[in-house]
Write a structure and sequence with these properties.
Helix 7 runs antiparallel to helix 8. The protein has 483 residues and is of the alpha+beta class. It has 13 helices and twelve strands. A hairpin with a 3-residue loop joins strand 2 and strand 3. The protein folds into two domains: 296 residues, PAS domain (Beta-Lactamase), CATH 3.30.450.20; 101 residues, PAS domain (Beta-Lactamase), CATH 3.30.450.20.
């Protein structure tokens, strides 16, 4: 078994200059195809999704290079029988290989060492040309210093800055990913220009598929040639070596639309078993991430399409970057044509614009969501009473835009007005009824007083009549006694 491992390492160093580039390129193009194929199934025109995909893509490319360099370093440190005499010689060989690596349309890798010493960038070896520690972009961002923070963060770092594209003197916004090789105090990174992301979003799906299909066929032909050359070089181990490579190739070729793990029993050598385990882990993580993304996007799409409230996204100065389709039914606007317009254009007067600016200012200061009631002008000129709930969108601890939900409360306002009018009318009725009751009470008091007076009169007459009756009876008794 020990002899077999030595044979593999010897073979790797023998064919390194002719075969390594083909293998890495094959891995790169398949990963590129898989990334863009999955992207075409995401929601169109979502810049954030595209940015995350590109960040994931460059991170994967860098991690593959880191994985390759780490393996080369481990082999150098583990096996004594090889052609190299020093670690510096190994580093120079690795740099010679990395400067030719490419991904995507114009993607390339770069490397730096601690203290700001450049190693290589975009096909050019810059080792020994002097420190670039103070290198800055037009906005004052210390590019190398930010990238070298990867030496302190094992997970790597993303850095945003502006840089010159090839054959272009104007700096262009860019995001890069850097990861460290701690033992050498190296960082290796790759980047993507932000304006390229906009172009990617607009790519035609059919043309992209054809282009990627041709690239895959070209790489398959190159790999077949590589396998044929390897067969004559490796002699006895070539059959086993080719079997392992073919298994990996089939796996990555189908990885774009199938998730079939590699059978470790088909891997003859321990080194390939490690690669197979890493690939299986990668495909499992990718499946989980894609399923979570699909569910999230479906939920978001359903929410925006079925609800009556309008959802919008604006820049910090109020210009629309997204508008949900239901604004057509809500206010008669075409959501695509409204992109780029300022939200102030839909408000009634300067007072409401000032109120909205006051609310957004509070949100920028406190980072908390808030709401406001405004009058919203529809496409036909009708004014709608709306409730606008505004929330900040935060990236890297910084508010970059606003999300808002606009709800029509015209009916509620109408009912509130009717209730207020009814309440005022009811108060008037109560006051009028109170006055009538007072008048009736006064009349009743007057009648009661008259009745009391009449009662007194009748009572006096009753007493008088009774006295007369008693007197008459008394006289009658006297007359009867005399008779």
């Amino acid at each position: 078994m020990k002899k077999s491992k030595k044979s593999i390492i010897s073979t790797i160093f023998t064919i390194m200059f002719s075969g390594t580039f083909l293998i890495i390129a094959l891995f790169a193009v398949i990963t590129f195809y898989n990334t863009y194929h999955n992207y075409l199934h995401n929601v169109d025109n979502l810049y954030e999704v595209s940015l995350e995909q590109q960040k994931t893509m460059i991170r994967n490319e860098v991690e593959k290079v880191i994985f390759y360099v780490t393996k080369m370093k481990e082999h150098f440190e583990t096996y004594e029988h090889h052609e190299l005499t020093s670690q510096e010689q190994l580093q120079d060989i690795i740099i010679d290989i990395l400067i030719d690596l490419r991904f995507g349309k114009e993607g390339y890798f770069f490397g730096s060492a601690a203290g700001g010493e450049p190693l290589f960038s975009n096909g050019v070896i810059t080792k020994g040309t002097g420190s670039v520690w103070e290198l800055s972009d037009p906005d004052g961002i210390k590019i190398i210093q930010e990238q070298l923070k990867a030496l302190e963060k094992p997970e790597g770092v993303f850095v945003r800055y502006s840089w010159h594209k090839l054959n272009d003197s104007k700096p262009t916004p860019k995001v890069s990913y850097s990861k460290a090789i701690p033992e050498w105090n190296w960082i290796i990174g790759a980047g993507v220009y932000l304006e390229d992301i906009n172009e990617i979003v607009l790519l035609n799906k059919i043309l992209l598929f054809r282009q990627l299909k041709n690239q895959v066929l070209e790489f398959l032909l190159l790999f077949a040639l590589y396998a044929l050359i390897s067969f004559f070089i490796t002699n006895r181990i070539s059959a086993k070596f080719t079997k392992s490579i073919n298994t990996l190739t089939l796996f990555f070729r189908d990885a774009a639309d199938k998730y079939i793990p590699i059978d470790n029993d088909l891997m003859v050598f321990d080194e390939f078993k490690v690669i197979a385990d890493a690939a299986n882990q990668m495909i499992e993580k990718q499946k989980t991430a894609e399923e979570a993304l699909r569910k999230s996007e479906l939920k978001y799409k359903n929410l925006t399409e079925i609800q009556k409230d309008v959802m919008i996204t604006t820049t910090l100065d109020g210009h629309l970057t997204y508008c949900s389709p239901n604004i057509k039914d809500f206010a008669g606007y075409d959501p695509e044509k409204e992109l780029g317009n300022c939200i102030d254009d839909y408000l009634v007067n300067s007072n409401e614009i000032a109120l909205l600016e006051e609310i957004t200012g509070k949100i920028l200061a406190g980072g908390k969501a808030d709401s406001i009631e405004l009058s919203f002008r529809s496409a036909s000129g009708i004014l709608l009473s709306v409730d606008v709930s505004i929330a900040p969108v935060i990236e890297n601890d910084e508010i970059v835009s606003f999300n808002a939900i606009i709800r029509d409360i015209s009916q509620r306002k109408k009912i509130e007005t009717e209730l207020e009018n009814y309440r005022l009318h009811l108060e008037e009725l109560v006051q009028e009824r109170t006055r009538e009751l007072k008048t009736k009470n006064q009349e009743l008091e007057t009648m009661n007083e008259q009745l009391n007076n009449m009662n007194k009169v009748f009572t006096g007459r009753e007493f008088r009549i009774k006295e007369l009756r008693d007197r008459v009876k008394e006289l009658e008794n006297k007359l009867s006694g005399q008779a």
